[in-house]
Here is the input.
Amino acid sequence: MNHNIKIHCVEDFKKVTQVAFNIFSEVHQNTDNRFYIIPGGSTPKQLFNLLSFKINDWKNTNFILSDERIIKDKQISNESMVNEELIERIDGDEKPNLIKYNRAGNQTEVENILESQSPNLTFIGLGADGHTASLFPGNSDIFNENNNVCIKVKNSWESFERISLSFSYLMKSNQIIFLVSGYNKAEALKECLLGAYNPNQFPAQVIFKNYTKNIFILCDKAAGKYIA
Here is the structure.
């Protein structure tokens, strides 16, 4: 295991959320131009809720999701989840800005914004199949990124496409934090950290193997049962 990987395995996901908040708060307080990558799905909701009522200073703050569905129905988008669980819960007029993907498909405007910025902090998840963001196993296109900021992804089991930040862009971050919860993630987390390097099967290994700055793995005991 690389020496830059720090594992924090705690009792439950509530404590995972608190550790994640503490890391975010320290970075946020010591940064002027604040730019963060955040995950979609249900895993980060507790963290977003905590941020919404614990952080008071949101000036110069921009978020972007690690990935998004390219779909017209906004209600099932990650963007909608972030608005509901974080931005709309913040009291006051000063709120963070969420950089939005174009769910119609063309991401040129987003890429132009991101190419000039390096994230202060990246929060991402880990799937039971070893994926992170929308970088899924069995899809060779995710490795042919040519230093692109965004990658379009189409999974055979889904009727829609996804847009994901590329491995190279995720690794521009000053720190990367994996939020991992549940028994169903334990095997993938073990393979990503201790197994043979096989990114076709466990794409998140690309980050664990190649990122040279600090990686924090924040997991509950269920997810960390093979590594704690």
The longest strand covers residues 5-10.
